[in-house]
Design brief:
It is a single chain. The protein is of the alpha/beta class. The protein has seven helices and eleven strands. The protein is 30% helix and 21% strand. α2 packs across α6. The N and C termini lie far apart (47 Å).
């Protein structure tokens, strides 16, 4: 718990990734050999939430055990309350709820505290509770839905800032998470610099291809582009 990892993210990295779709990121990561980077079950709680970027601050639940998963556990030094007080501004809280959908990991009070601490977003393969209050808190949330019961009805909180599995994806503290309408995508921390270099060019290329399609161009040889279309692309975008 509380392992020292890099949690700040350069403003330039945030600016670049804020302009790149999660769909594009999955393509780039696939080219790097990573197929399992989309966190299953992470859907925007509110339509139209902005694309957000941040380092992963991880939290882990295990199955409920009756002697541990009690309302009294909320006052324990190992609790979601204590974890929230460790969250740095700008991070994205990523919660391993094992896909449990009948116990809400966080509610309106905890989400409001996260907003006060400057947390960028909450991502979980589980669900939230007090959904109207969570929406009212203003915290952007990606999850599998809502449920009335508290977390201890189905889960035991055990750790934070340790490796987790969220939506079937291995997430380490300090990895980078990007969220948009398509869900949450993980960029391993070690690949961040490569993706920052590749992503803007991929977005420019796909925008150019879209323009060609809107103008009536056929897809073969265009998407992906052959040598002729690569040359056209370079000529059209030279100096831009």
């Amino acid at each position: 718990m509380n392992n020292p990892v890099k949690m700040d993210l350069d403003a330039s990295a945030v600016e670049i990734l804020s302009q790149v779709t999660t769909a594009t990121l999955t393509t780039l990561l696939l080219k790097k050999g990573l197929r399992n980077v989309w966190l299953r079950g992470t859907r925007p709680l509110r339509p139209g939430q902005p694309r957000l970027v941040g380092r992963a601050f991880t939290l882990r639940f295990v199955p409920a055990r009756e002697d541990l998963a009690t309302p009294e556990s909320w006052s324990s030094p190992i609790s979601t309350r204590a974890a929230i007080e460790d969250m740095p501004a700008g991070c994205i809280a990523v919660v391993d709820a094992m896909g449990v959908t009948d116990a809400g990991v966080f509610g309106d009070i905890l989400c409001t505290r996260m907003v006060k601490r400057g947390v960028a977003a909450l991502v979980t393969d589980g669900v939230v509770r007090d959904v109207s209050g969570v929406l009212g808190s203003g915290l952007p949330v990606w999850c599998s839905g809502a449920a009335a019961p508290p977390s201890v009805a189905g889960l035991t909180f055990v750790d934070w800032q340790a490796p987790i599995a969220c939506g079937g994806v291995a997430v380490f503290p300090g990895d980078v998470v990007v969220v948009d309408d398509d869900g949450a995508v993980l960029i391993p921390a070690a690949l961040l610099d490569d993706i920052l270099t590749l992503a803007p060019e991929q977005e420019r290329l796909e925008n150019w291809i879209m323009q060609q399609v809107e103008n009536g161009a056929a897809l073969p040889g265009l998407y992906p582009p052959n040598a002729e279309n690569k040359a056209r692309y370079l000529a059209d975008t030279a100096g831009k």
